[in-house]
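chain below, 504 aa
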Amino acid sequence: MSEPAAQGAAVAPDEAIYIGPDYAPQLTNDDLAPLVKQKWTWYNIFAFWMSDVHSVGGYVTAGSLFALGLASWQVFVCLLVGITIVMALANLVAKPSQVAGTPYPVISRSPFGVRGANIPAIIRGLIAVAWYGIQTFLASEAIMIVFLRLWPGLMPYADREQYGFVGLSALGWVCFIILWVAQAFVFWHGMDSIRKFIDWAGPAVYVVMFVLAIYLVGRAGLQNIDLALGGVSKTGLEALGTMAIATSLVVSYFSGPLLNFGDISRYGKSYQQVKRGNFWGLPVNFTFFSLLTVLCAAATIPVFGELITDPIATVARIDNTYAILLGALTFATATVGINIVANFISPAFDFSHVNPQKISWRTGGMIAAVGSVLLTPWNLYSNPEVIHYTLDVLAAFTGPLFGILIVDYYLVKKQKVVVDDLYTLDPNGRYYYRNGFNPRAIWALVIGGVITLAIVVIPVEPLATIADLSWFIGAGLGSLAYYLLPEYRRPAAEPVEDAVNVRA
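prediction:
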């Protein structure tokens, strides 16, 4: 057993880690080693999803579904069906990491090989960097509202035409950097501090949304709220097709947190605790979220004379300064919470995984933070069309990675993982394959990723019609290819049942 990791690392001071006898230093450090003591309860998992759902990005994405021309009840159905699918997928991806006590890049050594796992780690890390930047930008919009309400003279500096750089205004840059530094500060204090932060960040935004809904309905009058926001409801096959696309977009929005969820589930006390947290945090919590989203959006029409689906823009239209300050800061806080957990922690593990002895968890996180600025995320989430395109491109990569992991763990390895072999460079190790790489997984990723990306980026029919289904297509192609491709054969190792440190 190793000494407990230092404070500020991914492993909290009181969480011991297991170091096996044959662990290769090139494959591990205190942050990547398997946990022995896992102490997160169902509430911690519930709070994780609550912050994710109630982030600014969650509301903006849900609001963007109205651009598809669906009525409110149809959007509501799509949100609920989509989140039920997300819960089922979250339960699947949670188990391997929870059982082994390892983060995603380590558990992905099972399908990709102990060295080949760097491929999905880098891909996932880059995707998480994109999401981290997007969420930071969306939260910074709330901070900008606060600045403009307190100091109206700053308005010219919020105009990117007058004072702008690479698509963002001068004031926008200031707000973005404020959020960037705040998130880095929380991250730097380690997982235990992060857990405590999200435990109250998610519930806080719930309170604000309830107050906002009561305020809007009170001003509009319940009798004046029309739930047919998308116009006349589509019917027949046209409606089903559009609703399928909307449902897929919901899953695509959560595709990043889904792939990253193993980094969270590894801390769960038990798999049952994780599943319980998923149930309360996804379908139950999301039902209330969907009701609030649809109700608030519908009420903006009689109150403000136009449909507003962005909660930050809605808060900005309120006359009361204190209400604006409370609402904007709460949305920013909730977004910071989920951004750290879903999009800061994951690339920290991923980049550390590339060179564990030289790149610590903290260093990996800061690499991600710097990369998020270079991506200019405000250009990736500027309108509903760009939002959908961004989701489709990211999902084209996360889908195959998800499918390969699930098929490997549940169908190929029969829900058994030899933890010691995840950390060894011994050629006889089960996950060494060919020089540390599994050709089967790499080819499955190429097949699933390239085909799905082509569907997204080639603007021709009928590809454009199914582009919004990119996550499902990628996951299906990646998993099918991995299952059907021949297994790499090498000299037989000892049976899994007789191996050391088998977890099932």
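The chain is about 65% helix and 0% strand. The radius of gyration is 23 Å.
thats it, cya
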